[in-house]
Structures are given as structure tokens and as C-alpha cells.
Amino acid sequence: MPATPDMQKTIALVVRPNTSGIDVPVRQLVDYLQHAGYRVVLEAGTAEHLAVDGIEAMSAADLGAAAYAVVVMGGDGTMLGIARQLAPYNVPLIGINLGRLGFMTDIPVERMIPALADILGGKARADKRTLLEGCVKRGGETIHCGLAVNDVVVARGAGAGMVELKVTVDGNFMYNQRSDGLIIATPTGSTAYALSAGGPLLHPSLQGVVLVPIAPHALSNRPIVVPDSSSITVEIVAGRDISVNFDMQTFASLMHGDQIVISRSPYNMTFLHPEGWTYYDTLREKLHWNEYPAGDSRPK
């Protein structure tokens, strides 16, 4: 939707709760944006835990309709939560890192003012990402649906034995898998749980979805990347205490015969980065690809 003049003046702020010392950088950010002529609003949950006088609070739905951009101060978990809520509105997101890793909230807090000045001044790199949506079907009826920025994970409960899953792609039988579970991840999620389970990195521009088994019984059961136009169905064949997780949102009590049908969401999300940002810079910084053993003379 084209931005109206009013929307171009509105910047929304989402801040991770219970963050020590956050008041000072938030005040600095609000002061900068207001002095630059922007209207600043707070996401409703942020307003509940953050005391900033004279700033209007809005629900996520209202933010999506009103904001030109949303600045997220926190870690990747904070970004995941708000990104799912704002996905239908196609409002761009700018991430200020207050977490430990920060694949999505990539701007260091000490550089937030100059970075924002560049981004809001038009010196920005837009980074569009796909999402997944999944629905749990039982007896032919849909009983739950969820949206995922990173991944959809079907997994056994703590202390339970292996699960058996039947996986089909576009109606074609792929395999029956015995494992601790299965991760179905976007390119964004390929650097998260899927990576720790042995999956590949997918560049964000790739139109793919990666399926990564968690501790499979058969060592020949390897990760596979399928087109993101695929419809993936995961059926619960055997096991107990099985749940499906859409990023951080869990639906428990899956039963034998339940099917989780996963496909690309019609929504996208857009991150705004400072001009000159590249995905490879993020990989080097976050995964420490540029580090060598002590005494190694190669350039860092």
C-alpha cells in the first residue's frame, strides 16, 4: 500500500521488556526522531513496561495501518514476535540489537542514531524475507493455524521416545522418518535451529524451504531444500507428547493421524539496513567466519 504523507511521519517503537538500562537509549532515540520531525508511537506492550511520557500507544494492528517504519530494540526473539503480527501490513522493520546474536536486529545500539539517520534519509538496503504458514488438520478439519518467520518445528516432548513422521511434498511421498522431530525452515530460519541441527544456510533471496531432521534414526536421512512454492504435509504416525511450534508459538497435544500442512505465506516482511549492508557481512560477524586461531597471520 502506498504511504500517505501522515504515514511517512510516523515511526513506531517496539522495545524488549525487562532490559536493564534501556531507558537512556530509548529516550535518545525518541528525542532524535521527534527533533527530526517524526511522530513517534509505542507498541502497546512496550508502553506497558516502558515509561515514556507523552508518547501514544498503539496495538500492532493500528501500527501496521499507521506506521511508515517500525524500529525494534531487542534481540531476534523480539523481532520475531512483532514481525509475525505486522506481516499482513507490509511495514518495514529496523532492528537495533540489544540481544546476544542479532541476525535480524543487526544495528549496534551505539550506532543507532547515525544508522537511522541514513536509513530514514533514503540510504537504506531493503531486505525482503518470506514467511511460512501452517495448519494442523485433524479428521479433515483445521484445528489450529500459525505463522512463522523462522521455522515450523514438529518435535517430541522431553523424556519421550522417537516420533515417526510421514512427509509428503506436493502430494508426493518423500519418506517416513523416525527422529526427535523435523524442522521446516525459511531462509531466515536457516541460521537458527535448523543450522544447529546440521542444516544448510540459505541466502534470503533463494526461493526455498529447508527440511532438517532432528537426530534421525537413519543417518542417511539428510536435510533437503525444496521450492517455497511447495505444500509440505507432515503426518504424525507414532510417538507421544508431540507438539508443533511456529517460531515461539507452540500447539501441543498432537494426536496420531494429525497432519501439519505447511506452505509459503502470502505475506512478506522487509528489513531495512544501512546502505552497504550485505548478508555476508552478517554471516562473518555473527558466525565468526573471519576469526582464525591465535598466531595465524592471515588477514582478519
Automatic annotation (TrEMBL):
Binding site for NAD(+): D76, G77, N150, D151, R178, D180, T191, A192, Y193, A194, L195, S196, A215, Q249
Recorded name of the encoding gene: nadK
Family assignment from sequence similarity: Belongs to the NAD kinase family.
Entry keyword set: ATP-binding, Cytoplasm, Kinase, NAD, NADP, Nucleotide-binding, Transferase
Keyword Repeat tagged: no
Main location: cytoplasm
HAMAP family in the record: NAD_kinase (MF_00361)
Record-annotated active site: D76
Reaction catalysed by this enzyme: NAD(+) + ATP = ADP + NADP(+) + H(+)
Protein name, entry field: NAD kinase
Keyword Ubl conjugation: no
BP GO terms, sorted: NAD+ metabolic process; NADP+ biosynthetic process
Domain of life the protein comes from: Bacteria
Molecular functions (GO terms): ATP binding; metal ion binding; NAD binding; NAD+ kinase activity
Cofactor dependence: a divalent metal cation
Known role: Involved in the regulation of the intracellular balance of NAD and NADP, and is a key enzyme in the biosynthesis of NADP. Catalyzes specifically the phosphorylation on 2'-hydroxyl of the adenosine moiety of NAD to yield NADP.
Xref: InterPro entries: ATP-NAD_kinase_N, ATP-NAD_kinase_PpnK-typ_C, NAD/diacylglycerol_kinase_sf, NADK
E.C. number: 2.7.1.23
Organismal lineage: Bacteria, Pseudomonadati, Pseudomonadota, Betaproteobacteria, Burkholderiales
Cellular component aspect of the GO annotation: cytoplasm
Localization, UniProt: Cytoplasm
